[in-house]
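From the shared-data thread, chain only:
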Amino acid sequence: MQLDAQLPTENKYVIIGAFHTINWDFPIGILGLWAMGLKASWVGKHTLFRGPFGPIFRLIGGIPVDRTIHTGFSQRIAELYESHDQMTLAIAAEGTRSKTEHWKTGFYFIAVQARVPIALGYLDYGKKRLGIGATLYPTGDIIKDFEIIREFYRDKTGLRPENQGPVALPPKYRTDTD
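Structure, as C-alpha cells:
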C-alpha cells in the first residue's frame, strides 16, 4: 500500500479511520499511523480490553468505550485534549466492521468540543493507499461539514465494500439531500 501523509499542522486533532470493513483494518491502520510518525490514541469497544489483550491495547493507545451506556464519553475525551500539549485520537467513524446506515458522530463532537481539526484518514483498498488526505476544521454545522467529509470519501473503498455503509449522518440530522 502507498502511504499518504498530509498531516495537520496542529499538535492536536481527531483522525477519522474509514473504511473499517475487516478485522485487519485495525493493525494495518495502526501500522500506517506509526509509519507516518504518529503515536495516536484510538477508541475501541470495551469488550476488546478484556482478558490478556486489554493491557496490550491500552499500552498502544487504546481507550475503551461502552456504547451501550451514555456517560459523556465525548466530553471526557475533549477534556483530555485540554490537558495535553499534543494529542491525536483515531476513531473508526462507522463504529463497526459491519455495514451501517450511517456513521457515528462522536468523532465530530469530540473535535468541536475540544476545538481541534479532523484529519480525514482512510484505507482505500481499491487504489491500494492508506493515509491522511485532508484536514477539516469543523464549523459546528454538522450537516455542512458532513458534505465535505462525504465528498472526500466518495472515491474510497474498503476491502469488503459490501460491509461499507454510506457516509451519512444519523436520521435525526438528515435533510432531503442525504
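The chain is about 30% helix and 25% strand.
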